[in-house]
C-alpha cells in the first residue's frame, strides 16, 4: 500500500495543505500526518499498517467507538432503502424526538449537515427574531467557520495564532463583540453600552476549542439571565459537548439542575453518529421564525438525509447511562495517569476539565486557564514532542494543545493500559522541550 508520506506528498498537490480541514495537516506539531484506512472500536489503522489507540474519536462522533455494530447495521439497512429522497422521511422526527427527550427547552428542531450551518442559522435566526444586529461571542470559542464568528475563534485558529481570517469584511467583524470568557463584568458592561442592539450571546456550553476551559460556577446561568433581561437570545453551542459531556451535553451538568434553558441550542458531531448531520433547536416561538413558517430563510438539499438520520438514531439510542458512566470513569483514570506522569517528569501543568472532556495546559499550575489569553500564554511548545512520543507509541492524540481529548465506550482496559504505558516517555519529552527561537 502507498505510505502516509507518499499520500501526504501527493495530497499537497491536490488540496491546499494536503487536507480538507486544517488541523489534519499537523501544522502545530509538525511531521507527516498518518493517513487512516480503517477504524474499529478504540483503534485507528493507518496506510503504513500501524494501529493507534484513538483519543480524537473523529473529534467527538465516535462516542461508542468506531464502527459500532448497531450504527453500522442501521446505516447498511438505510443505504438499502436509498441514499437521499429530497423529501421528508419518518426518521427525521424520530431523531428530533430523541434530542427533545434529553435537552430541556427544545420544542422545535431543524436538521442541517454541519455544525457551522447550525450556528450560522442560529445567528441569522436570532437577528431575524430580535430585529437586532450585534452578536456577542467569547475569545477562544469556536463555532464553525461562518464569517461573523471567526473573530478570535479557537480550534485551528488558536493553533495557527491568527487573529481571525482573511476574507471577512470589516463590516461583518464590526457586528461581532468579542469578550473574554468567564468575565461577567465584561458581559454586564457590553449590555449596558449596547443592550438594545445585541441580538444574541453565543457560547460553547463548555469551551473545548482553546483546550478545555471550565465555565465558572453559574456562568452559563448568568448568560441566560442577562440575555433574557435584555431581550436578547442565548445560543448554547453544544456541537462538541452535546451527547458527550453527559446524555444532555454540558447543559445536562449545569442548566438541568440550575433550572434554566437557552433560547437556542446547536448540535453536531455526536448527533450524526459519524455521518454529516447537525441541528439547531429551541423555543417554538423563536424556531418558528424559520422558513417556511417565518421570514428567516434556511434550507438544505441533504438536510435530514435518511442515512445520516439512521446513524444518529442508532447512536443516541445506544448512548445509555452506562456509556456515559464508562467514559466518565475512563476520563478520570486518564487524567490521573497523565498528571502523574507529567509530575514525575517535573513538567508544570494543569488539567482543564469540563465533565469527561479535558485537555492539558503546560506551565499553568499556579493559575489554571480561565480564558483565551491564559490558554495562549501556556508553554505550548511542550506539546509537539509530547504528541510525537505518544504517536510513536501508538497513541493518536489531538494534533494541537488547543483541542480536547476524546474517549469512547470502546476504550477498555487494554486500550487504556496502552495509553498509560506510553505516558512516561512522552512526559520526559515534554520536560526536555525548549521554546522555539
Ligand atoms: C466542531 C464545532 C463546530 C463546527 O462544526 P462543523 O461540523 O465542523 O462545521 C461548531 N461549534 C463547536 C463548539 C464545535 O466544536
TrEMBL record:
Alphabetical UniProt keywords: Aminotransferase, Cytoplasm, Isomerase, Porphyrin biosynthesis, Pyridoxal phosphate, Transferase
EC main group: isomerase
Cellular component aspect of the GO annotation: cytoplasm
One Gene Ontology term of the molecular function aspect: transaminase activity
Positions where N6-(pyridoxal phosphate)lysine occurs in the chain: 269
Enzyme Commission designation: 5.4.3.8
Pathway as given in its UniProt record: Porphyrin-containing compound metabolism; protoporphyrin-IX biosynthesis; 5-aminolevulinate from L-glutamyl-tRNA(Glu): step 2/2
Gene Ontology process terms (BP): protoporphyrinogen IX biosynthetic process
Catalytic activity from the UniProt record: (S)-4-amino-5-oxopentanoate = 5-aminolevulinate
Listed cofactors: pyridoxal 5'-phosphate
Subcellular location: Cytoplasm
CDD domains to which the protein is assigned, alphabetical: OAT_like
InterPro entries linked: 4pyrrol_synth_GluAld_NH2Trfase, Aminotrans_3, Aminotrans_3_PPA_site, PyrdxlP-dep_Trfase, PyrdxlP-dep_Trfase_major, PyrdxlP-dep_Trfase_small
NCBIfam families per the UniProt record, alphabetical: hemL, PRK00062.1
Xref: PANTHER family: GLUTAMATE-1-SEMIALDEHYDE 2,1-AMINOMUTASE, GLUTAMATE-1-SEMIALDEHYDE 2,1-AMINOMUTASE 1, CHLOROPLASTIC-RELATED
Similarity comment text for this entry: Belongs to the class-III pyridoxal-phosphate-dependent aminotransferase family. HemL subfamily.
Subunit structure: Homodimer.
Protein name: Glutamate-1-semialdehyde 2,1-aminomutase
Species for this entry: Paeniglutamicibacter gangotriensis Lz1y
